[in-house]
Amino acid sequence: MSPWIKQVEDTTRAFIMMQKKVKRPFKNKAAHDPFCRTVKVQCSQLDSYMSFKMRLDTGCEAHDLIAWEVIDELDMVNDIVSKEEAICSCLNGEQLFSIGTVTLHWKGKGFRKVFKTTFHVIAGDVLPWQIILGAETIHEHSILKFAGFGGRPYHQKESREEKARREAQKEEHRREVAKNKAKVDAHKSAKHASSENSGSSSGSSSGPSTSG
Question: Does 62 map to a domain?
Fold first, then answer.
């Protein structure tokens, strides 16, 4: 290899390394958000789905929300049941208004179960979200348990009444098992005793007889 070619290769390699060092501090890797997931929503054409971002908001107690732009993209504007109403207040104090509701079928990316949910349609210039699933729907369907969402498993805390009911059911089951075992043991003992009695009876009847 000629000295000139080697010098060119060394210069090129040094330039590439310098570019990597410069880019590294500015590399902006998006933080992983376990409560924002890609979902597939059924379009007006029943055999097709489109992908959107859904935020699972356990702090949203009132409704499930969807941006008007999503409905427009799904070509389902005509499916909106029009009814203007204020549904909640934002953190900045502004009222959030719904222009109506729409019922959609959707599923998490990568699994089969399809959910049916009625969303309030929100119109706005540029909303920072596409779909918001509220606390009531999340808890009703145990959404966070589905691996397709990649969320943390949601384990509802067992109440005292539920715990007492479960313990009572376990105790009743144990009593039933013990009762059945006692019946089986009694049946075996009776059968064994009957077999012994039958054997002794046949033995005595088959013995030699004496005449006077």
Answer: yes
